[in-house]
């Protein structure tokens, strides 16, 4: 029987957190808690947090502050999990003593117990990190829609100088292939058409003698997967075999997310990224030689400690040179306990902003040009939802993740994969009309 108290999970950060939140919701559903979207109406609010930049944590802390004010007026249980719960636990305990639960991804199998305890007025603050890697939650993909994120590994063994993730997520552990296959099966059963394999350094996956290209090849052959993606790849672990597997399997999306971070070898070295820009460029060329239609997206940081104008120019040149489909651009933000914290954060905020704007404006123009060049062309779209602006229209994503809004012919359903003729290209989306049902 359903319980009276409702739970809402608010998710910040990357797809790894999306995956964890699906699991948390699945577990709570199994314990008969009704899960609701609107957290303002919930009796229990769990916040899955991100600590990757200062701004990410500010967002989290300000939400907690607002919710604690509401908690003074009505019965409300507030729990905080995810990366800030790990790296900023002491800060949370000190500044927000009224929090009921602090949990990490490792404790999520106990989340229902923590919530039950909190509803009885008992606090739960995580202590031990347990390895609960093999927990499979049958119902976790029920609300996924067209695409599901599936974690194939946790943690990260790299030590990029700026990055807090290894502190938040621990050492790299690859999950058993059987568990991954089981979760994919559950996702497909729930109607999912697109599988996104997740890992902080996804292409360094290794379980016994099974490597990432081998796993990817096996997953691609599973019946029912219309689209297969994987994030995030590290340039140092891209092999010829990986390129070959992508070429051989047409359901693997022809858009690779490959963070370059910087175009300057001096900066890459200080970032401890383990490759030069020349090496990165070589990987791109190999991909293009094997799969001419392939496109790339990337992550970039501007204003890393001691980044000179010359270093920045090299990064800007890389943007022009590679012609990325999408760039996740960040201003460097110092994180406690990282190697870069010891470096002199000498690029002024104003200069960071200037460098950021230069790349952003350039990239916006390029994306608009690309989107306009698609006018009249037919693209393949995975239908994900009704259009936000016009409920009579549907929306979806192209293989390289561009948003498309289009008129339906009445025969198309959410989760279908269809061909759409592009009528107009805009800065952030495409407009089209249905051609045929696949
Ligand atoms: N494991 C992934 C994602 C890491 S976090 C990877 O290796 O790419 C996502 C992105 O955030 C990073 O790629 C980086 O560009 C950015 N980032 C991480 N730490 C940062 C920091 N301290 N300041 C600014 N950007 C940061
Ligand atoms: Fe952070 Fe580097 Fe690991 Fe990515 S690969 S999570 S940037 S340490
Ligand atoms: Fe943020 Fe943690 Fe992901 S720090 S980016 S939620 S791994």
Task: Summarize the entry for a quick read.
The chain is of the alpha/beta class and 438 residues long. The chain is built from 13 helices and 20 strands.
What does the secondary structure layout of this molecule look like, with pairings?
Blueprint: E1 7-11, H1 15-30, E2 44-49, H2 54-73, E3 77-82, H3 83-87, H4 89-95, E4 101-102, H5 111-119, E5 124-125, E6 147-151, E7 153-154, H6 165-169, E8 173-174, H7 177-189, E9 194-198, E10 206-207, E11 210-211, H8 212-220, E12 227-231, H9 240-248, E13 255-257, H10 265-271, H11 277-290, E14 295-302, H12 309-322, E15 326-331, H13 349-373, E16 378-386, E17 393-397, E18 403-407, E19 417-425, E20 430-437
Parallel strand pairs: 1-2, 2-3, 3-4, 4-5, 6-9, 9-12, 13-14, 14-15, 18-20
Antiparallel strand pairs: 7-8, 10-11, 16-17, 16-19, 17-18, 19-20
Helix pairs in contact: 8-9
The structure holds S-adenosyl-L-homocysteine, iron/sulfur cluster and FE3-S4 cluster (F3S).
């Amino acid at each position: 029987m359903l319980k009276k108290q409702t739970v809402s999970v608010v998710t910040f950060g990357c797809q790894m957190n999306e995956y964890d939140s699906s699991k948390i919701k699945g577990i709570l559903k199994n314990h008969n808690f009704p899960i609701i979207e609107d957290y303002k109406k919930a009796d229990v609010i769990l916040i899955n947090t991100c600590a990757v930049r200062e701004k990410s944590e500010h967002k989290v802390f300000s939400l907690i502050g607002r919710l604690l004010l509401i908690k003074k007026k009505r019965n409300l249980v507030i729990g905080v999990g995810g990366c800030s719960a790990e790296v900023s636990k002491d800060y949370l305990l000190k500044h927000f003593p009224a929090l009921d639960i602090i949990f990490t991804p490792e404790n999520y199998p106990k989340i229902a117990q923590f919530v039950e305890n909190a509803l009885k007025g008992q606090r739960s603050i995580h202590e031990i990190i347990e390895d609960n890697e093999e927990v499979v939650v049958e119902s976790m993909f029920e609300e996924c829609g067209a695409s599901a994120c599936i974690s194939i590994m946790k943690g990260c063994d790299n030590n990029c100088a700026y990055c807090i993730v290894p502190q938040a997520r621990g050492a790299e552990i690859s999950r058993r292939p059987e568990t991954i296959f089981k979760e994919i099966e559950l996702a497909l059963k729930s109607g999912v058409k697109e599988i996104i394999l997740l890992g902080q350094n996804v292409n360094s996956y290794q379980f016994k003698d099974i490597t990432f290209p081998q796993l990817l090849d096996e997953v691609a052959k599973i019946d029912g997967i219309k689209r297969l993606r994987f994030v995030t790849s590290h340039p140092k672990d891209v092999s010829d075999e990986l390129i070959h597997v992508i070429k051989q399997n047409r359901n693997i999306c022809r858009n690779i997310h490959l963070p370059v971070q910087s175009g300057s070898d001096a900066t890459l070295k200080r970032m401890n990224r383990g490759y030069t820009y020349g090496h990165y460029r070589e990987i791109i060329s190999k991909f293009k030689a094997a799969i001419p239609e392939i496109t790339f997206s990337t992550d970039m940081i501007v204003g890393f400690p001691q980044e000179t104008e010359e270093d920045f120019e090299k990064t800007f040149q890389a943007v022009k040179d590679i012609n990325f489909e999408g760039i996740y651009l960040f201003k460097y933000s110092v994180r406690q306990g990282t190697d870069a914290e010891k470096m002199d954060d000498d690029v002024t905020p104003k200069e960071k902003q200037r460098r950021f704007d230069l790349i952003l404006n350039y990239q916006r123009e390029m994306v608009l040009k690309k989107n306009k060049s698609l006018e009249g062309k037919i693209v393949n779209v995975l239908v994900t939802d009704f259009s936000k602006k016009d409920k009579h229209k549907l929306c979806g994503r192209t293989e390289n993740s561009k948003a498309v809004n289009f008129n339906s012919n009445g025969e198309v359903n959410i989760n279908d994969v269809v061909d759409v003729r592009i009528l107009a290209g805009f800065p952030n989306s495409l407009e089209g009309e249905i051609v045929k049902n696949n």
